[in-house]
Design goal:
Structural class: alpha/beta
Number of strands: 6
Number of domains: 2
Shape: globular
CATH class of the largest domain: Alpha Beta
Distance between the termini: 13 Å
Largest sheet: 6 strands, mixed
Radius of gyration: 18 Å
Mean pLDDT: 95
Oligomer: single chain
Strand order of the largest sheet: 3-2-4-1-5-6
Strand content: 15-25%
Length: 230
């Protein structure tokens, strides 16, 4: 059984990554364990699949609940993950609120602070926020309300999620909120709303199309692919 650990900064990433993993793995018998540091200095298990004789992939999804602690949590748990047989570690956090001009500096700093060892560790920076990935998956807006075509979004908000670069949006979460609010749907990042968003995303489109057109998303999916096929 192959073991992967993914560290994320918050509930949005936790819910999306769990759904993405399930969709990518398909029938490959994936096991997911979710730990969260919410309201606690130590992570607590909040969900755990059952391991069976046919389980092929074991994924620890660790919610650090803060962008600043993703790398420090990786450093803290690196040795124990190595002992437990994990083969790859991925960290996922937003660039925001750091300006895009400082992305390369941020990446270098994070990479420099990573522990050195036998497990490959990769930090992926969602530009500017993971919501840019959701904007780029423009098909899901039609599931929220059929009025929300790319052309209508452009008319209302002066950008087109189908043709424009969503990684160039300064605050993608505000864009999502504005679009949803227009049709009377909220986006306050409650668990219910995040689950609704995750359920409406087209994961085949994300995996086949967007991974090639949204660099940070493609990088993240690429690391997952390498783990599963290596």
């Amino acid at each position: 059984m192959k073991k992967l650990a993914i560290f994320v900064e918050g509930k949005t990433e936790q819910i999306f990554v769990k759904k993405l993993l399930t969709e990518i793995a398909g029938k490959l018998h994936i096991f997911i364990e979710i730990k969260s540091r919410k309201n606690s200095n130590s992570a607590k298990v909040i969900m755990k699949d059952s391991v069976t004789s046919v389980t092929k992939f074991y994924v620890l999804l660790y919610n650090s609940c803060n962008d600043e602690t993703v790398v420090s949590d990786i450093r803290e748990l690196h040795n124990s993950l190595s002992i437990e047989g994990y083969e790859r570690i991925i960290g996922l956090r937003d660039v925001y609120p750091i300006p895009i001009a400082e992305k390369s500096k941020l990446q270098r700093g994070l990479n420099y602070s990573l522990p050195k060892g036998s497990i490959p560790i990769n930090i992926v920076l969602a530009v500017m926020e993971i919501e840019a990935w959701f904007l780029a998956e423009y098909n899901h807006f039609l599931k929220i309300d059929t009025i929300l075509t790319p052309d209508k979004i452009q008319e209302l908000f002066h950008f087109n999620p189908q043709t424009d670069d969503m990684e160039a949006r300064l605050k993608p979460s505000d864009d999502i909120k504005n679009i949803y609010n227009y049709v009377g749907k909220g986006y306050d990042k409650s668990e219910k709303q995040l689950n609704r968003l995750a359920a409406n995303l087209d994961y085949e489109f994300i995996y086949i199309k967007l991974a090639n057109s949204v660099p940070s998303l493609g990088e993240f999916i690429g690391y997952i692919d390498r783990f599963m096929i290596s």
